[in-house]
Every structure is written in C-alpha cells, then in structure tokens.
Specification:
single chain; alpha/beta; Catalase HpII,  Chain A, domain 1; Hemocyanin, N-terminal domain; Rossmann fold; 3 domains; ten-stranded antiparallel beta sheet; six-stranded parallel beta sheet; about 25% helix; binds CIS-heme D hydroxychlorin gamma-spirolactone
Amino acid sequence: MKKKNEKNEKLDQLSQHTEDGRGHKLTTNQGVPINDNQHTLSVGDRGPSLLEDIIFQEKMTHFDHERIPERVVHPRGSGAHGVFEAYESMAKYTKADFLSKAGKKTPVFVRFSTVVGFRGSSDLARDVRGFATKFYTDQGNYDLVANNMPVFFIQDAMKFPDLVHSIKPEPHHEMPQATAAHDTFWDFASLMPESTHVLMWIMSGRGIPRSYRMMEGFGVHTFKWINDKGKVTLVKLHWKPVLGVHGVVWDEAQKISGMDPDFHRRDLWEAIEKGQYPEFELGVQMVAEKDEHKFNFDLLDPTKIIPEEEVPVKIIGKMTLNRNPDNFFAETEQVAFHPGHIVPGIDFTNDPLLQGRLFSYIDTQLKRLGGPNFHEIPINRPIAPQHNNQREGHMRQQINRGRTAYDPNTLADGYPAQAKEKDGGFTSHTEKIDAHKVRARSKSFTDYFSQATLFYNSQTKAEKQQIIDAFSFELGKVENEDIRKRMVGQLTQVDKGLAEGISKNLGFKTPAGPQKPVQRGVPADANPSDYEPLKKKQKVKIDPALSMERSLKKTVKTRKIGFLIGEGVDEESLLKMRAALLAEGAVVEIIGTHLGEFETASGKHLKADKSLSTAGSVLYDALFVPAGKRSIQQLKGQGKALVFLNEAYKHYKPIAMEGEARELLGMLHFGNRSTTELEEDGVIVQEKGHSDLALKFTTAIAQHRFWYRTGVDEIPA
Ligand code: HDD
C-alpha cells in the first residue's frame, strides 16, 4: 500500500480519485454499459460508419480534447507530494500559521521543471530549473514559485515576453529545441547586461543538475514577513537539498539526453518509490526593515543575491517528498502556481519583476485550465475551507446552496462575513509611497556585473573551466559573429580570464570591453551618464556557498553505482561490494553483457538489471568491475564495456576494479599508470580479498567527482 498523506486522504474523501477500474464493466461517461469497444457502428461490415454511434462519438470527442495548452514557460516538469515540518516558531517575524510552531506539519505539492523545452523535451537541457511548492496551509494555499537559481535575467516584468521569445526555438523554423544556444537568445542577452549574473549561474554546473533532489531552490525576490504586531522583516527564501548540490558535466548531459531524456523525472520517481525520500531544508535570510538600504545593491532588484557571507541563511524547517502523484495529468499538469497565492504574515515587495508576475500567473491559468474555477481542480484545492460569493464560470464544481451571493446581505445573516485581522484576516502591509507615476528603472539597479564577478571568483578552478566551456559551446552555436563578440565584450566586465578563455575557443581576439550602448530602460529625458553601469566595491570577495565544489556534502546516499559483469562473475566480489554500498544507502544496478540470468563462477545464478546496450555509464555515478576470470574475458571482448569505463573516467567518476578486472586496465585510456597514481585519481584497483576496497570506493563516491584527474581531455569517448 502506498503511503497517503493528509491532503491525499482529503482528496479521496471528496471522491475525486477512482481506482483503475478492476472488477467494473466498461461504461460511457454517462454511465451506460458498453458491450463493444472494438468496432464502430456501420451499415454492414464493409459499409460506412453511422453518425448515430454515440459511443464512438463520445470516445473520440474526449480524445480530441485531451490536450490543454502547455505552459508557455516551464512546460516540462515532474511533481511530487510531501510534507513540510517547521523546526521552530517564526512567530516573532511572521504570523504565517504554517511557520508558527516547531513540529507543525503542512502538506505540500512540488513541481520541478525546465524552462525552455517543450513538454516532451529532454530533462538534461542546460537551463534554469523551476522549483515550485504549494503549501496547503490551514490559512489557505501558499505558493513559493522558485527557481534553482537565486537571480533572474531581467529586472522588469515588461521584458519577460522578450526574454522568452528570444530563448524559445526561433519562430521561422522552430529550432533549436530546449536550448539557449542560438542567435536570438544571445542577441538579446548581449544587449541586456542585467542578465550577466544569471548567465554565470546557468553556465555553471547548476544549469545541468544531477537530480531534482540535488538542487537548491530560491524565491529570488525579497518578500516581506509581517508579525502580529505589523512589524516587517525583509526575507529571501532558500531550499537547501539535504543531499547537497550536484551537477553533471556537459558531455554527460548531452549523452543522457539521448539515452534517457526522462532522467530527472525517473530519478525523482524511483527515489520516492524506493522510500529514499528527497529532503530539502527551508532557509531564510532576514533583514530588518530599517536596514533595507544598508546594502550596496537594491533589495528590490531580482538580479542580486544577498551573499550568505553577509546575511547567513537560517534553517527553519524541512520538506520531505514522500509520495508520487497518482496521475500525471490530473496533478502535475493541472497544478496551478501563482506567486500571488500568499497567506497572512507574508507580503510582496515592490520588486518590478514580482509585481508583473502577480498579473501573469492568474492570466496564464485562465488560458491553460480554461476558466476561473481552476482552484477547484483537486490538486489546486486548498484544505482550508473556502466561502465567498464567487459563482458560476466554466466547469464549476461546487454546488452553492442558498439565495445570496452578495455582500452585504441580511438574508444569510450577513455571511460569509469579513474576518477581522485578529481572527487571521489577510491585511496588506500599509506601506507609504509618495512618488510620481513614471516608466523608469531606479538607478540603484544599474550595477550589472559586480555580483557576476563575485559568483565567478567564488568558483573553484574546475568550475571556472566549466563556465568557460559552457559559454564557448553556447556562443559557438551562434552563427552571427557580431553577437558572439558583443557577448564576450560584455563578459570582459566580469573577468578578463573568462573573456579570454572564451575568445580563444571561439577564435577571435578578446574585445577590449562592452559595446555601447549597454544600458536599456533609460528614460528618454534622462542624462545617460547617470545610468552608466556601475561596478560597486563588494564587501564579500568570495562566497563559498556559491560554489558546488566548495560546499560539498560528502555522502553516497542514493548514488547509483553500476556493476559491469559477464558470465562467470565472482559472486563473493560482487555481493561483498553490493552489501557495503547498500549499507551506505547507495543504489546498485547490475549491468550484464546481456540481459537475464548469469551463472557466477561458483555456479549460482543472478539477474542483470540492465545490459550494456540498454544502459550507459552516463546514467551512473560510479562503476565497479567485480572479479571473475570468465567475466573479465567477456568484458574485454565488448567495446561497449570499455567505453563505459573510459567515459566514467572522462566524467571524473569513481571507478573500482577487483581481481582479474585489473586486466582491463591495459585496454583503457587511463589504465597505464601505477595503482597509487590511479587511486589518487579515484580509480581503486585491488587484488581480490583486500578488506579495504569497499571502504576506499565508498569514500571516493562520497567525493563524487575527481575534477583534477590526469589525462581526461585525451580520452576520445
Ligand atoms: Fe514564472 C511559470 C518561476 C519570472 C510568468 N515560473 C513558472 C514556473 C516557475 C516559475 C517555477 C512553473 C510553475 C509550475 O511548475 O507550474 N518565474 C519563476 C521565477 C521567476 C519567474 C523564480 C523570477 C523570479 N514568470 C516570471 C515572470 C513572468 C512569469 C517575470 C511574467 C511576468 N511563469 C510565468 C507564467 C508561467 C510561469 C507565464 C507559465 C506557466 C505558469 O506560469 O503557470 O505565468
């Protein structure tokens, strides 16, 4: 039996769930039993079909209407149910009930997504990831509609359609799919210096996550928390994955896209089915209202972070995703998030991107879900009761009794009545604003590069190289050379070495600096020099939290280890290693030279989970080759087995080989070195029976990647 959480039980009570039809007769949607689901009604068995075949008509009409518009951005996604538990009371800062006491549990539904690719595109695109959470709180639904990057491309929502039009496939031939690597995006980006900071994040390993379970989430905007005395605290929200933040490398990402385009979806699904529930801690950076202007950037600017070195992230609760959806369409496709779904104790700031989002999300749900009653779709339905005078509209589910649908009234004794603030009624923060109505960007938003530099400087050597390579790939796909140069010109403002590295790969001289004009959004009557991009002195030079390698969590939990075997594998070698890895919480899959049963050297039988042709090393975090004379003989004769190992080495992954498996070394590109040298590079090779092989291998897996191993570039795989 699957575990059910509170929300699920509630939905079941509302009889929205039906089981899979076992034991029931087939019926029409009107409940009429169907006695032939194979043939249309026709005039004779070779004659024309009849219009009066209402069974066919109903079936076909429903089928023809099965698609709803995919999301204009974030169409490709995967969801999961779970629960959020508060670690402590945050009542001092917010009256939000779900954060009001330690141990308070709130059901949640999360949808992770890519942004650019269509619904059927690969999970491994280089892209921002969406991380949207619906908290079904006792005070109503709260949506934290976040991304895995803490900053956005643009500062004003007015530019969102332009951004999205530029990054989506080009409109004349609808290519390329699910990638920014084409002219229109970089044309736009190279003219929008404010996007530089997020580009650094996307070009890092964060743009190609290892798993949805290993990504951070960021609310991006500064929000307000308000306590019961009306006191405001400015906050930025973070999700921190308990397993740490991990990416894959670009070569891997491209190969995974071919081998398993559902890689992230499958990973999330399987982890939950196995009971390895993904966990994320909720963190908050808090700034007293009086300190709003103490920073050298504007807290309203969504292209800026508050460095964790400046304001630490306080961890206040944990979300555990513990149940897969029952039906993808009903839940993951129909879930409707909106940054405007907030609860008392939370309020908006005047971030111009957030303000624009407050319009866009409702508007998009009206189109996608077909009308104003989308809140009645089970996945969107709050568990808090709803009473108001809204009525009718497409697909209305609720059957409201009574005569009154207006306020004030006496016929229903004045109900539903307004809640008082003390009874938990929502009140907006009474902010005083005294200003002219203008179309303008505040000057405090014009430092575009300082934090991009902070991000770059906080990366390790390997991570910097990854960023250079990523820019080189993306811009290398751009056909127009002016665009390439303009973009690199902009990157000279981030770091000279970065710009030089990319220029070298693209085959031109590094531009001296950015091209003019670099500033958009300057009011027509303004003095342009007032709006020159600034580079302000940074308090923080390096923020380790920005680097994945510097903030590594050393664990092998849920890591997927592939065992390469042939007939006659040494059973003891295999079982010992498997037991050691499983004990540490890793996942083991046996990859055979063929599928089905294998006879071990001692005459026992075991089954392969995958074969060399249905798997690839890119789908695993590490590889082990157990001992076994015959098994190794067979692997030696399989080019694919050698590709597996060479590729794993190329992708910096730990490898272990026992007993006869060492004979493979001579056939591998990296094998021609001493055991000690190999071990330093995360390749552990031992005679059979050494007791510390498993320990050394698990320690290497906990390090995840050996970024600085030798000879990687020479491997042709
Ligand atoms: Fe957005 C979807 C996150 C800026 C307009 N957005 C969407 C989703 C996520 C985000 C995670 C997918 C939700 C789901 O899984 O259903 N969006 C962000 C973040 C932003 C951001 C973190 C910047 C801080 N978005 C943004 C702007 C606009 C939109 C500036 C428009 C003014 N976003 C939308 C949308 C979508 C959407 C068009 C498409 C589908 C949907 O809303 O439900 O309304």
